[in-house]
Amino acid sequence: MSEYIGHDRNGATIGLVEKQFFTFAGTDDQFALESGASLGPVTIAYETCGTLNQDKSNAVFVLHALSGDSHVAGYYKADDAKPGWWDIMVGPGKGIDTDKYFVICANILGSCMGSTGPASVNPATQKEYATDFPMITIGDMVRSQKALVDHLGIKRLLAVVGGSVGGMQVLEWCVRYPDMVASAVPLASTCRHSALAIAFNEVARQSIMADPNWCSGHYYGKTKPGMGLAIARMIGHITYLSDESMRLKFGRRLQNKSALSFEFGADFQVESYLQYQGNKFIERFDANSFLYITKAADYFDLAREHGNGSLVKAFSKTSARFLVVSYTSDWLYPTYQSKEMVTAMKKNNLNVSFCEIEAQWGHDAFLLPNDKLNNLMKGFLRSAAHEPASV
Amino acid sequence: MNPLRYDLQIIASWITPGARILGLGCGEGDLLLWLKKNKQVMERGIEIKESRVVKCIEKGISVLQGDINTEITDYPDQAFDYAICSQTLQQVYDPVSLIQSMLRVAGKCVVSFPNFGHYKIRTQLVATGCAPVTKELPFSWYDTPNIRVLSLRDFENFARQGGFNILKKAAINTKNHQFEGKLVKFLPNLFATYGIFLIGKD
Known about the structure:
The complex is a heterodimer of chains A (391) and B (202). Chain A is α/β, with parallel strands linked by helices and 391 residues long. Chain A has a domain at 20-193 and 301-386: Alpha/Beta hydrolase fold, catalytic domain (Rossmann fold, 3-Layer(aba) Sandwich), CATH 3.40.50.1820.
């Protein structure tokens, strides 16, 4: 993600934003994790846009996906080359209108964009955690986000919104803290990974761990496992696209040449694209974070965690109203997975809207400019803000 | 808000304020929005077409994209006070199970459909020997979505066999793109273009 984001063509933007930090738990009173391990202190990097109203009832928490960060919209500096990753959705007059709503976005626990993760320094050893970092879960991410929301003095979020792994956090928020969530928008998401999704993640992880520079995760201060991480990202990118989008975007076109080279360099545009995306990813992302977050996503199973195996039971814990969105060409989290959650919500008589948006761009469609999604979001948030949840 | 089509005005007048409503094939949500604003109902819609679903959600209507025949099955028994199937019954492959499902999830149901017993249809068939094409049923035999042709009398017979009761009925004639109309009292099966029925188990 975020590779797509350019300046908003309409010119509307929230303007300058700031990366902020919130630290909780300490070395003595550590944050207990679901795995049984504990962690402390825990720092969460976050960004806010818009203004929190008097009764603190207009907060929208945006949850980012696997490789995202807290920089959801606007610019850190006036001359930044790119705005935040969802600038097309978050801003004045946009789908999530910062003139109306107070938007919060936090970097997830275990990531490397300012929140505590494997690249952070372990106070016990004064060295990076590396693979001594405990396993974290989607539940742990959400519990750390809840600490931030408490810190901001917000009792109830108007909405939690997120796509992909961000959508998993949306669902987790709803069933874990039902009193704190009025409405929820999981986009291109799932209640649990399919074997296909786990398989791709496992190949990506294996490519990192097979890189000789990985050194069981203890590569900080040395050469990074760049090749492994780049290949992991290339695999990811294949799953984010679709047969149709790749055919339209690349076809069998050659990259800067008119004939096959009969060498192992990049002949086809699709090869060159994947290599470019892989190499760019090395600059901004930590390989260990990739391992931890993909594992957390693979472990996520809403029914197992919150319903003894029953999705219907899991959703019985929430009274939030939902907008569920899937995309026709998403083969990573296909529509049937969204429909599965919708069915469980209906069986609980929850107020749920569902739309399968026709889009050729695969799983990544939710990050691309799409008037439909912006309009859906606008209408849904408006009704969530003006009609108290009916139970 | 757009003015309500005449047949929808009749349906709206039958709905009690504050009721829980399921709209099957709810289109762009005009009826549900009207009921929500004017009768404070709790609305849910089911609509198959993506562009219409988007319109509903933009208006703040709660709607699911999907096929009414399958989507209705997930709701708990008697989750609604009314299930409304407006001008869609004639397009349903298995209307018997749909009506049974409607009566399972809702106490009362509204169904409406174009009347195939209308005199213009009868005379067209007799006079031309061809499948009738009218303002209300404007398709040719090969491209019509209206696969179940029925008259008001057909539906009344169906109610007797199907084990449900007709609680209210309105036979109507519409004009001005269906935004105006009147009730047809005299020989409704011959002179009404549409029939609207409120049905229930008891």
